[in-house]
Each structure stands twice: as C-alpha cells, then as structure tokens.
C-alpha cells in the first residue's frame, strides 16, 4: 500500500483501493484544526483510510468531520463503518442524501441492480448512520474547519441530484466528486491529460451537469480534487474535454437506444461504441493498444452506459 500524498497545503490524498484497484477512488484529508475527511469510498476502503491516517499521525478519534460529495456507494458507502472507528466524527451530506445514509436500503438495492453478485465483495457492509451524526449543508452554506479555513458547499447536480461540491479558498480548489467526471492520473504520467464525463445511473442529467460546470468556471478555481482520482491543476482543460465528450456520449447512447429494445442490450451497445471512440482518441495521442488503462475505461464506461440509457428511457417515457 502506498503512503498518502500531499497535494496542497494541509491537503492529503489516501488511496482507498476501491474495487481493489489503485488510483480508483480517494479519500482527502484536510489536516486543519478540525481534521476533516472528504469521501470515504466503500467499506472495503476503510482499512486503507485508517492506515493512511496512521501514516499522517492522525488518530481516528481526532476526525471531526467526514464529508461525502454524494451518496453513491463508491463515495459514501464506507461512512457508516468508518464512524465506528471515529467516535467524534459527524458526516456532512447533501440535503437530498441524508435520509439514505440513515436508512441505506435503497442505496443497497440500487447497487445490487448494477453490480449483481459482486455486490458483497465490493461494498459490504453498508451501515446506517444515526441521524444525530448527520449534518446537512445547503447550497452556499459554510463550515469552519480552522481559524483561517472556511469551506463553502455548492449544490452541483448533473451526475446526481444529491451532489454538492466543496470549495476550499486557501488552496483555491474544489472537491468535485463526480461533477467534472473522471480523471486518469495514470495517463497524466504518460503525458496525456484525459477527462471524461461520469454519467452513472440513475439521476444523470446533461443540462444540469453543464450548468454545474459553468458554476465552477465562475469560481475560477485552480485545482480540481476528483473523486476518481486525484488532483488536476488544469481545470480549463477538464471543462473543455467533458463538454466535448458529453454530446458524443449522448449521441452514441441514442444510436444504441434505437438499435436495440431492452436495457441490457442498449447498455452493452453504448458501452462498446464509447469504448471504441475513446480507445481511438487515446491511440491517436500515442497510447499503446495494450495499455492497462483500457481495462479501467471499460469498467467506467459500463456504468456510464447504464446511466445514459436510463436517462434516455426517462426522456422517452
């Protein structure tokens, strides 16, 4: 297991090894007077988070706040288990997500629908969080985590309706969750800055996503802290790529929707179509045909494909 890395002043990243994969989902540590975590990943990530905290000389008892950008299980699924180790921590969540953390039955059912028999290995256990340990933050509300550090929460739907982003003024950065999609640091190390939208089911909305990106631009942030994965200091390029890929994702989904009659066939078709386009784009940028990132992309596109077809189903009904 690799050690936590420092990304900015008092901001560290712990790899949660979500789905058993490195650089898949991260937990951010704000080493302020009130020590704060942003994201928990799923429950199998909790031992990695605890080990990362130990490496940073932080005891679990010192954690004051655990912020989840949204309640999809790869961002919040480990929160209940983590709280068992962090007796003084409270979880900060979007107003539309709080009830699902205190009663995660619907979250569990949704994840089982997507991941099937892999669910237990990837996500168990998903523990309910007592309501008195939940704090709701509305749009533009703030949280003081240090004498000179106040975070601001912004409602950012598009990926999901229960999604907020957290602006950190001291580093002029925003904890983006999945609002600006997925970033691949593995490719960055090979000289390729690459971002794609994250269109997971079941509340994906492209218009809301673009509106949230416009808000980011208005804030003029210099750093994006992604749920998947790590930090980019090139936000304009991220916006540009996500805005370019989004209509391509929609158009390919429409083609797939029209050529098949059931959800599974349509999802397989759009996943295959998008994979072909992304692979061609990356090969044109010099990436080798057998690069391991293609396995990661395939997984990401399978989930995004489900969200795209779900979105079109709702548009047609």
From TrEMBL:
<dbReference type="Pfam" id="PF00753">
    <property type="entry name" value="Lactamase_B"/>
</dbReference>
<dbReference type="InterPro" id="IPR050855">
    <property type="entry name" value="NDM-1-like"/>
</dbReference>
<protein>
    <submittedName>
        <fullName>Glyoxylase, beta-lactamase superfamily II</fullName>
    </submittedName>
</protein>
<dbReference type="InterPro" id="IPR001279">
    <property type="entry name" value="Metallo-B-lactamas"/>
</dbReference>
<dbReference type="InterPro" id="IPR037482">
    <property type="entry name" value="ST1585_MBL-fold"/>
</dbReference>
<feature type="domain" description="Metallo-beta-lactamase">
    <location>
        <begin position="24"/>
        <end position="228"/>
    </location>
</feature>
<dbReference type="InterPro" id="IPR036866">
    <property type="entry name" value="RibonucZ/Hydroxyglut_hydro"/>
</dbReference>
């Amino acid at each position: 297991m690799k050690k936590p890395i420092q990304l900015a002043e008092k901001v560290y990243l712990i790899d949660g090894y979500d789905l058993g994969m490195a650089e898949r989902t991260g937990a951010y540590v704000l080493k302020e007077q009130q020590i704060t975590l942003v994201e928990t990943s799923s429950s199998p990530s909790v031992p990695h988070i605890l080990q990362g905290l130990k490496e940073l000389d932080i005891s679990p008892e010192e954690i004051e706040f655990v912020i989840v950008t949204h309640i999809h299980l790869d961002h919040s699924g480990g929160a209940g288990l983590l709280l068992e180790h962090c007796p003084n921590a409270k979880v900060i969540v979007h107003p539309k997500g709080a009830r699902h953390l205190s009663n995660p039955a619907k979250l569990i059912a949704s994840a089982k629908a997507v991941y099937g028999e892999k669910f237990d290995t990837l996500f168990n256990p998903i523990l309910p969080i007592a309501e008195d340990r939940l704090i709701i933050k509305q749009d533009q509300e703030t949280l003081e985590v240090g004498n000179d550090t106040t975070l601001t929460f912004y409602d950012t739907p598009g990926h999901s309706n229960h999604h907020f982003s957290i602006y950190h003024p001291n580093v002029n950065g925003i904890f983006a969750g999945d609002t600006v999609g997925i970033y691949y640091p593995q490719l960055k190390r090979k000289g390729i800055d690459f971002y794609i939208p994250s269109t997971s089911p079941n509340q994906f909305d492209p218009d809301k996503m673009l509106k949230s990106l416009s808000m980011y631009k208005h804030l003029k942030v210099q750093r994006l802290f992604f749920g998947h994965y790590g930090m980019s200091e090139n936000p304009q390029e991220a916006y540009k790529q996500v805005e370019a890929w989004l209509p391509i994702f929609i158009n390919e989904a429409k083609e797939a929707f029209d050529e098949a009659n059931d959800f599974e066939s349509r999802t397989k078709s759009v996943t295959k179509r998008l994979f072909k386009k992304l692979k061609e784009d990356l090969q044109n940028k010099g990436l080798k045909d057998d690069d391991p990132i293609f396995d990661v992309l395939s997984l990401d596109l399978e989930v995004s494909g489900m969200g795209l077809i779900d979105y079109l189903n709702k548009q047609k009904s």
